[in-house]
N-acetyl-alpha-D-glucosaminyl L-malate synthase BshA (Paenibacillus antri), 378 residues
Amino acid sequence: RDKDKLNIGITCYPSLGGSGVVATELGKLLAERGHQVHFITHSMPFRLTGYHKNIFYHEVEVSDYHVFKYPPYDLSLAAKMAQVANMQKLDVLHVHYAIPHAVCAYLAKGMVERPLKVVTTLHGTDITILAHNESMADLIRLGINGSDAVTAVSNDLIRETQERLHITRPIDLTYNFVDKRVYYPRDCSRYRCDFAPKGEKILMHVSNFRPVKRISDVVDVFRRVNEEVPSRLVFIGEGPELGKTMARVREYGLEERVLFLGKQDEVAELLSVADIMLLTSEKESFGLVALEAMACGVPTVGTTAGGIPEVVKHGETGFLSDIGDTDSMADDCIRLLTDPTLYARVSANCTKRSQTVFCNDLIMETYEDIYYRILGRE
Ligand code: GMT
């Protein structure tokens, strides 16, 4: 793999969210590999703390000229992409999330002095939610068809993109990945004492608290589990459903047993404290948190929505039920928590699967091969 080192631009949503995490971690791996990586975003990606050799950050500034009722961020982004592409001689611009990034990249392509190849990675809600709107669908289709390569994070997302948007061009599968230097089973005894002082089992849910996560199902599953196995529920993250979730916890009288930690930057340190990760979503193109938990040896109990079954192998690395079937999910949790032999087997499968199918080097090389392919350097 001794091919030329590349100049790669990356655009993503820099604040909380799985797509931003994946884009930033990929950028870091590519930079370690010797490529020059230029992040073009409206603020510093939250996982990009400290100095990293070969990584550069270009901030998009939005014009606040008084004529604009709505400052045109998308145009500023496209202009910045073209400027960075020209100045840094970008070979590839890799955008994560179709709207508006793929469309901005399409515009930028028309403004650059030398050929610029564009890769678009679809992450989920850009297709499963935004593409339901007809005019948005036309824009997403334009971004997809105007890219030199398109990737998606699960086979289920590829299928849905092709069906919903009538896309016929090939879409590469690039599963999300975890860095095993960061996500591994850690000794979490100090957190365990804080979260579950009487040695209770710990169930965890990590998300942006959007309606698609069906977080009230998390509370319902926990209520049933706790009736049979003394347990605690730890929530990490925040978002629009947080208030409703707290209300449900109060309604069930479970305040003493449920902890809301809010947004946490260092999730890798906390995941190993969980015995089970709950992922009850009705839509989930991949479910990055299930993979992160898996890498820490923590099985996921959740739903068969979207790409989750490609990540969590039912019966091997966790257990999956139909969307909304909280009784079945609770039964699976109880079985796992009361059968140490079953738990040990599933937990061992988790670390093994995360380090093989979703290994960072493997997925990074898949992206690298796509860059070389579209540049004609195979
Ligand atoms: O889960 C979210 O709502 C955030 C969203 C995002 O754009 O960051 O996550 C999507 O991309 C992640 C990274 O590829 C996937 O792991 C999530 O499954 C996907 N979310 C949905 O499909 C709902």
